[in-house]
Amino acid sequence: MGAHDVAKRYALTTPTVRERVTLDEFRKTWSWQDQPEFPVQNMTADLTKICSCVQLRLLRCMVAVNLTIETPDERSIHERTVQVWEFADG
After folding, report:
1. Distance (Å, rounded) from C-alpha 12 to C-alpha 83?
2. Does the pTM of the predicted model rise above 0.70?
3. What is the pLDDT of residues 49-71, one digit of tens each?
4. CA dihedral defined by 69, 37, 82, 72, rounded to 10 degrees?
5. Would you list the domain boundaries of the chain?
6. Which of 13, 22, 27, 58 has the most Cβ atoms closer than 10 angstroms to its Cβ?
7. pLDDT at 89
């Protein structure tokens, strides 16, 4: 993400997003061409707990994650998020 690589960022979206949104649509939606490059960051994540899982065509889980975001010359940011993780095609 820090390198402003739209294709790589798109590849990191969930399978469901990629089924419904093309790369060109993703590029337009986020107005990537108008955004400055993001600073280089180091991000680490620790799984706090699995809140729930549902088996659909794929496995979708709600998870709590502790994030640490480090940017050179700035204070580290610590956040706790609840995310949806999807597992599809292995």
Report:
1. 14
2. no
3. 888 888 877 788 888 888 888 88
4. 0
5. 1-38, 39-90
6. 27
7. 67
